[in-house]
Amino acid sequence: MTKEMFQKLAQAVIDGEPEDAVELAKKALDQGLDPLACISNGLTKGIQRVGELFASGEYFLPELIIGADAMKAALDILEPALLAGQEREVVAKVVLGTVEGDLHEIGKTLVGTMLIANGFKVNDIGVDKPASEFINAIKESDATIVGASALLTTTMLQQEKLVEALKEAGLRDKVKVMVGGAPVTESFAKQIGADGYAEDAISAVDLAMRLADAPA
Ligand code: B1M
């Protein structure tokens, strides 16, 4: 039954049906299913399939948009369940955003939710943010970690710009930099001088924990 629910959630995203996705998400919670498993094994599989269909030319931009809308609608139901009963001491303050020129928000937001669920205070500055906005947010919130998401091979270069801008602003030794997003790799992260790379939201939490403990 659990597997069937994951498949239905994935299908609602593939079909771009936000109302179905919301109903299924509510049903899954009512059935006591783990919200993170619903996201990882259901919704994420669905949006990955949408990406494949887009890449192969079977889907076009409208299908990409409605697929994302269906995923976001279901996440609005599932993400609060991830946060339930998570009042605790702040592990570290994090500024999180998607880099300039990049509108992909779902993965970044999921990383933020998981960080909050694990005790981090997250200032999510949104999508399409230049390095200067990350830097302003770091100064305002006194964050010790900055996370930059990029989903396009073109925009991942903005992560390098962020590292450079932090150096220019005299903040590089005060903040740890974590990067992620589908085209980003461990070796790219090293190459641009970031402190760490995470491939998904769960490993992003592990990484942030390590960075929070590491000396500045
Ligand atoms: Co876009 N898109 N898209 N898209 N889109 C991709 C990325 C693409 C791979 C699709 C494809 O061709 N197969 C392709 C990029 C190709 C490339 O660069 N090599 C692509 C393209 C081409 C485009 C446009 C250029 C299309 C066009 O206009 N012709 C355009 C660009 C717009 C722009 O940004 N300037 C575009 C637009 C869009 C939409 C706006 C329609 C929509 C996003 C809606 C939204 O976010 N509100 C969209 C979507 C939905 C996708 C796919 C299908 C799904 C992305 C997603 O949400 N995944 C995507 C295909 C794919 O990735 N398979 C695709 C689910 C999410 C949970 O995973 O974001 O990977 P992800 O996040 C993961 C990890 O990567 C990691 O943890 C997350 C959770 O596990 N992670 C981090 C992410 N950030 C992290 C940060 C960290 C650590 C880990 O530390 C800070």
Main traits of this protein?
13% strand; binds CO-5-methoxybenzimidazolylcobamide; five-stranded parallel beta sheet; single chain; 216 residues; alpha/beta; globular; 9 helices
Structure description:
The protein is α/β, with parallel strands linked by helices. The chain contains 9 helices and 5 strands, in the order H-H-H-H-E-H-E-H-E-H-E-H-E-H. The chain has a 5-stranded parallel sheet, with helices on both faces. The N and C termini lie far apart (48 Å). The mean pLDDT is 95. The structure holds CO-5-methoxybenzimidazolylcobamide (B1M).
> Rg to the nearest angstrom?
17 Å
Category from helices, strands and their pairing: alpha/beta
The share of residues in extended strands comes to 5-15%
The helix content, as a percent range, equals 55-70%
User: Could you say which small molecules are bound to this protein?
Assistant: CO-5-methoxybenzimidazolylcobamide
Kindly, what is the distance between the CA atoms of the first and last residues, rounded to a whole number of angstroms?
A: 48 Å
